Amino acid sequence: MFPGDANDHRIGDATPEEFSNALVDKTKEESLQPLELSDAPPRVDADFNDKLIDDTRSASNNVEQRTEDSLLEEEFSLLRIQNGRSNLLRLPPETLVEIAVAYRAEILGCCAGYDCTGHDEGWTEHARARLCEILKLSQIFSYLRGIYLDTPRLWSYMELSWSPAIIRLFTERSRSRPLSLILMARDSDNYFRRSANEFDSLVDFNVSFLTSNMQRIKNLQISIFTRGIDVLKLWNGFQAIPAPQLKKFTFDVALNLPSRVLPLQDLFSNCAPKLSKLKVCLASCREFQPKSFTALVSLALTIEKNGALLDIWDVLSQTPLLKRLELSGDRIRHRRKEKPPLHRVLTLSSCRTVRLHFHPEVIAYLFSVLEFPALIDLMITSEAYEAYDGTIVSIFSRNHFPPILKSMVSSTVELNLEIHDNMTGFMVPLRPVSHDPDECPHPFTVIRERLYDVPYARTEECKLVLLDCVFQELKIKAETLYLDGWNPDDEYTSFEEDEGETTPDTENMDIQEKKPKRVATFTRSIWNAILSGCPSVTTMDLHRTLPLWPFIEALDQPTINCPSLTQLNISIHPDDFDLQSFDRMLENRKSRDAEIEEVEVDIRDVAELANALIREVDETSQALILSNGDALSNREATNQILSSLRDVQQCISKSIFDASTRISRSANARSPIASLPAELLSNIAHHYVEDVRDEEPDEEDEGERSWFATSQLRLERTIIISHIFSRWRQVCLESARLWSHIDLAWNLDAMHAFAARSKNILLSLRFHATGTESRVMSEDDLYLLIRSQIRFLTVKMSRVESLSIIINSYGLAVTKLWQGISPLRAPELKSFIFVQNIEARSLLSSRNLFSNDAPNLHTLHLKGMSCRRFTSPLLASLKTIYLAVKQYEVSDAITALSQAPLLEDLGLEGTAFDDLNRQSLFTGESVTLEYCHTITLKKLGADSVIYLLAALEFPVIRKVTIKSKAFVAPDGSTTSIYSHLPESMKALAAGASHLEIEMHTAMVSLVVPFASGVSSPVHLVEHVYDLSRTLREDVRLLLLHCAFDFFAIRPKVLSVWGSDPNPDREFDEFDDNDDTMGMEAYSEIDIFTERIWQGLLSNSSSIDEISLWETEPLIPFIIELERPKVCPALKKLRISIELAEFCADQFQAMLNLRKEHNAEIEEAYLMEVPVDL
User: Which residues lie within the region annotated Disordered (predicted)?
Assistant: First the structure.
């Protein structure tokens, strides 16, 4: 019987496989039965059976396929029937369209502000995701699809980052409907995976599409915050095309992109009659005539230079209907020789909203030439700074504060003060800031000022200026005061351990955790200034105003501050709040008839309330027991009651502890961070620990930071990350790389705990003792420290990948440490740094390093070692080497380098300048370093540098840094590196467009940068403080000969410094104790003689920009420029000298003369540098 027969009671449910198997079985069964001769059929062979089976299977497969097709068709029919009965079909088509529009708006609203920076998904991927969500609207069922395809409104929104095919499809479906186009390009990791051709194709298509469809565009929004896109090409491609339908236009770019200003002249060919909102970043308003934009009511411009302010007035005079104005600068202070001329005052009678972001002097200038009689919404963001004369320039000072504010805040009853570490400001009246910039439902005034350019020691002065402005100048008499001390840029994150979640580290009990320190923003003087200006305040709301004790102390004074205060709300961390002093203040005010009736302090949690309750029960019970007397007969009963109460207290404490733990775990499990995958949590922890490791002292630090305390802080902060909540702790413990970086200053248990948690991955070890901690540590402690390091290294050296030891602290047994390290074999070691900077120590031997068994070593940095007869098989694999050598060891260093054929980065540093012994000329066979592309030579005499450059050849050199010292040869001539450079270095400056030259009394320098702000391929510094005045000038002329004749540089940008523009930088190449620097170093005031200026400007035909800093005397330079043939292409000239006023007349005469001879300098600045007394 076949499956599916009626008697089998399985009708129609047999699968093709069962059917085939049953057929085979039945065939075998019948072939074995005996047959009668009369009925015997012809004998069936095996081939026939196989063919029958194959045919049967093929037929069954066809039946199965037809069955599936029929079922699928029936399923679709059922779905259509269900959709036909849907309640949506009862709605009119107009309603369905509105639903679709609302859904699309929600999708765009959720994604509009998303910043993809730092995520794997870039801005183009998010644009495609929004496209998929929008297309879902037309894929619900056929009836809706027909309606939506016939509705052009739904297809009029497009993103220019979509594929060209999609954009053309949407354009076709939108028919003649006005278009809304968006391009949101934000930076992401995907930038590095994109080629220049992809960005060029994107720009070319956008320009082509905008050019052909500008007549239909209603809304065009372009925001570019990523590198790679040619902003200027995109702008020039469409900005001159008429846009008759355009209502809103935004072109926003990041200020740090390499793009020039965007000209607004002839924008849209002055044909955009419906344009009502215009926003352009880095705009040039020169010859911009917006009078043809008759519907313009909102204007937002970001200008690149303060000089563009001269054009703003002309622009605004042509926009009488303007209701909203936003102006901002590029956040760079541009110093001008003259102040901008004052125009007549322009009145913008319809403007109700103003947003300004400039430095204080620019804001003051704008309010001096503009009036806003209808202004109700004002937001100003300024940048305070310290002027050259030492004064603080602030928007809240009386010279820069806008007078219009007095009328705007005169009747306010609410005041919000914001006092952070790096920002101050106020807001009246208080209301949530609307995320819709087009809406202003209530009067609103915000003035904020950033303090990034103010020294930290003077930020309190800025805060006091703010308070004086608010309470004395504006005379605000608020009844409600909101005080905000929370800093969004430096938010304090509490690393409180939740009990039961963050138990101590049982594997290493010495590892403890500490909370980071908070910054005291609200000092006593600030609190006094605030409270003295609040006599009418009845309600005060404080949010994270640290510290709080001066506030409590001020309110507790006999002379009542804030006498009208009746309601006080405080939100603060428990560790920053002294409950006893606060309660005492409240009682004292109550006794003085100044009671604060309503007090709300948001600091406690469940555990704290429970403990307070237990203490109160305990105190009450003891009072009741003691009230019965001290009779001997009652002592036993008293003890029993106290014992039972203690048991009850312990039970309550344990119950509350368990409940708090469960609540904390439940809250942690519901937190968004707990839903992140383990890989992401591990990466977050890893990046945090990397930042902790980066906070380390430099190897040249002479003790400003305690190296031992710094290492312990790194240990504590590393442990903190694994004690946030249980799941994260488990992830951290399973992440081996998190524990692979070990500081040898930690205790031995901590080092072994980290090594165990790092499992089998390679270790990175460091020991940086660069402070004076060892002077206060006992000899026993120092001995145990070195001993523990040697013990740990002996056990783990086979796993060490990187070992860095920098010792600049007395008291440590460096020799013992070196003797314990150097014999160890290091099969996995790749980088080794050993530096000792203590001059009193004797040099250590570098021979037989790691028993010559470190096959993977590619980086070696040794300082404080003897390089005599330094030969080792390890040199053969080195790619980076940095050695500190004495002058008599230079030849040994060359011998060592000859054994390093793979060397790519070479650094040699002298231990001290040797003025007694001179290096003879090199006469042997030179050593070729075929792969070396970077060389650094520091603190070596010119003779040693010349010797090295003659002994070594660098065929692929790409970067050279030399800091040397010139000297006088026995024949009286000057020996300088500038006249002995090898021919192979000429190519380093090929095509250089920038040249930087420094000429100080004691030093000269030549820098050839790749580009502005990029590392220099050539940096040559030579000290001349031992030379006579005449020989110094000879060295300076040799530098000019080297720049213009040897390197053949024809710069476009020339920068010359006559004194150090950054006097705080470290000159480690100088001898700090050299008395010769103080003898004559600052007596030479006329460095830039006529010969020097003629040498500087002798090859000036290509120069279009010159910057000079304290290049005195300046008169010979001005005389040279009076000749039009000198620097004929010069367009920009910036000069900063101390006595600028003595040269001003001759400087202006030179400018006029060049203008008459058609060699005008378009931008010329002569600024005065303050004289240091």
Answer: 1-48
- Angle between helix axes 360-369 and 309-316 (nearest 10 degrees) is 30
Q: How many CB atoms lie within 10 A of CB 745?
A: 23
The per-residue pLDDT for range 1088-1105, each reduced to its tens digit, is 888 889 888 888 888 999
Mean pLDDT in residue range 584-598:
89
Q: For the full predicted model, state whether its pTM sits above 0.90.
A: no
Contact 717, 681 (CB under 8 A): no
Per DSSP, helices labelled H in 797-936 are: 814-821, 890-897
- Which range is least confidently modeled, 469-483, 578-592, 852-866, 904-918? 904-918
Which amino acid type is present at position 773?
E
Partners of residue 446 on adjacent β-strands? 379, 427
Distance in angstroms (rounded) separating the CA atoms of residues 401 and 383: 13
Asked if residue 594 lies in contact with residue 561, where contact means CB atoms within 8 angstroms, the answer is no
User: How is residue 770 written in tokens?
Assistant: 């660069």
Return the ∠ at Cα 812 (arms to 809 and 817), rounded to 5°: 125
User: How far is residue 836's CA from residue 817's CA, in Å, rounded to a whole number?
Assistant: 12
Strands 598-602, 741-743: pairing is unpaired
Where residue 70 falls among pLDDT bands split at 50, 70, 90?
Answer: confident
Closest CA to 738 of 727, 714, 716, 722: 722
Q: How far apart are the first and last CA of the chain?
A: 116
Domain residue ranges of the chain, discontinuous segments joined by +: 15-32+45-82, 86-186, 524-603, 616-670, 674-866, 876-957
The Cα–Cα gap between 1096 and 1090 comes to 10
Q: How far is CA 1103 from the centre of its chain?
A: 35
Is 630's pLDDT higher than 80? no
d(CA 147, CA 89): 11
Burial class (CB in 10 A: 0-12, 13-18, 19+), 530: buried
Other C-beta atoms within 10 Å of 355: how many? 17
Could you tell me the two tokens for 84? 């036909």
Three-state secondary structure call for residue 767: strand
Six token digits for residue 372: 């806003």
Structure tokens at 835: 């530096």
Rounded distance between C-alpha atoms, residue 457 and residue 459, angstroms: 6
Q: Do 165 and 206 meet the contact criterion of CB atoms below 8 Å apart?
A: no
Alpha-carbon distance 729 to 720, whole Å?
10
Instruction: Say which range, 111-120, 607-616, 1042-1051, has the weakest mean pLDDT.
Output: 111-120
Q: How far apart are CA 332 and CA 923, in angstroms?
A: 55
Structure tokens at 621: 């019970």
- Given a cut of 50, whether residue 1077 has pLDDT beyond it is no
- Given a cut of 80, whether residue 266 has pLDDT beyond it is yes
Q: What is the mean pLDDT of residues 275-293?
A: 84
Q: How far is CA 466 from CA 182, 365, 415, 545, in A?
A: 41, 20, 13, 16
> Which of 309, 296, 310, 311 lies closest to 351, judged by CA?
296
DSSP code per residue over 343-354: -PPEE-TT--EE
Reduced to 3 states (helix: H, G, I; strand: E, B; else coil), residue 1132 is strand
pLDDT band (50, 70, 90) for residue 641: low
> What distance in Å separates the CA atoms of residue 1069 and residue 945, rounded to the nearest whole number?
14
Query: Is residue 850 left, alpha or beta, with left meaning phi > 0 and alpha meaning psi from -120 to 50?
Result: left
SS3 of 420, please? coil
Length of the chain: 1173
Tell me: the pLDDT tens digits for 944-976? 888 888 889 998 888 999 999 888 877 777 888
Mean of pLDDT over the chain:
78
Structure tokens given for 868:
């005599």
**575: buried, middle or exposed (CB in 10 Å: 19+, 13-18, 0-12)?**
exposed
Residue corresponding to tokens 């040699």: 908
CA angle 238, 239, 240 (to 5 degrees): 95
CA 155 – CA 171 distance, rounded (Å): 7
